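Reading a protein record of the kind used here takes little practice once its layout is understood. An example of such a record is reproduced below.
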Amino acid sequence: MIVVDKLLTGFDAPPCTYLYIDKPMHDHGLFQAICRVNRLDGDDKEFGYVVDYKELFGDLKDAVNSYTGNALSGFDEEDVSGLLKNRLEEGKMRFEFLLQELDTLTDDVEYPRDQLAFKHFFCGESGTVDPDNDDDYAKLRSKMYKLVSSLARAYADLKPAFDDVGYSKEQQEKYNRLVKDYIDMKDEIGLSSGDFIDLKQYDSAMRHLIDNYISASDSEKLGDMENFTLLAYIQKKQAEEAKNGDSDFEKKPTKAQQNVAETIENNIRRKIIEKTPVNPKYYQKMSELFQTLIDERKEEIASYKEMLEKYAGLVIQVENPEQNNCHPESIRVSLALCALYDNFEQNEEYALALHQAVLSTKQDHFRGDLIKERQIKGGIYRVVQKFKSELERTEQMAIVETIYKVVKEQAEY
């Protein structure tokens, strides 16, 4: 953006990081212009940069030491103290600070500190689905992602001046390698944990879609790519192993294959945790089945081929409960029906009646609207009265509340 006059005062754009000055400016106007880049924008921005083509600040060293001369002569020293700092000094301090923070964060990674050790440190070893435990690892990963992003930004700013800040050739090579290793680690952990999605395999297809089919009309949802990705990844691994004719495919998993298996497990675990509120009983069963597969993998009971086949089967069950043969045919037509059937006695007639009661009483945007919610609960209550007539009213109302908790999680409603 090129600004002649406006937007230099009273304009707040936190992402703005660089200001290039190529016009005479002094006193209050210059002070206000400089302040456009001093707004915080997330954890990785602590200062902005001013590129001064007009030499308004004279010698930078003198400007840092005394702010009341020349360009900012209209202000008291305390008003502008700390406004300008030496870019290289600040950049070097920040760069080294972030390296130290990452070193401290990863200090407890077990030796040999290889890829698998870092995965275990940030993702945990595959185990029982535990949202609380997973949340702890998620917070640790989030801190690492922010630090690495900040490091990459600080490195990009400082690297052209490595010689100027006094780094030797050996130090420069060391820092280049360290930054690359941290960025690679961030990407690997992000993919392994399911926090990131690897879109490289879709690049050419996406370019084709954009070039040929993207228009300005309203968007149309063609499918859920996230649901497809994990199953496609497993099937891709199956195809690769079969094509290569690897004899280990029929044997116990190698270390590299164990790595792939843990990546798949982390993604399956995340999906189960995300979907549990929609159908608690069903996904509890999926969690138990998932744990069985993990135990088999750890005990090396199954071959790598058998593991991938079981993972693929589990993903299909996790993503498509309506395709599970444990549900009657009349229930399989709807995910909401499956949830009602699984969580409330697995009674086909009862589930169908509850489903119909919700459909006949719900209104748009009912979630959070007390009046609309009461209408749905009233419809559910009438069904509960019919099927649970032997219970006291207080018990019936408690059942209604439990059913409604499941109902409001259904995207279908």
About this structure: Residues 128 and 291 are 6 Å apart (CA to CA). The chain has four domains: 18-85, 88-193, 225-319, 335-407. The chain is about 60% helix and 0% strand.
